[in-house]
What we know:
mainly alpha
Amino acid sequence: MMRLSSSSYTMAQGMNKLSKKGLAAQKGKKAHAKASSKRTAAKKGNPTQLPKNIQRRGMALEQARITKAINQNVERVSSARALKAGDTFSMNDVKSIGKELNRDIRREEMTRKKTRVEEKLAELQAKIDA
């Protein structure tokens, strides 16, 4: 009878733990599971089923674009108002959008004031010349 040494075979219970091939296989399985979970992860937003009719599909996509633009504008305006009132945000992207809008509004007001002054000067100049 031939006797097998302990180094030539492994028991079923410790196969993955002892052999290096088993460790590599486990890592591969983990990577595969991680990739497949990304594919099946929940998506953001309200799920929509687009119509199969080409014309209706185009209209639905256009409606989605319009809704997205309106929501972005509402977010800009509301964050600008909140920042102007003194509130703080933890989301930096919303904060930066609000700051940018406030800056644009201030610039617009300053340029408007200059044009009003120029208009009044022109009126006074016209009265003096007349």
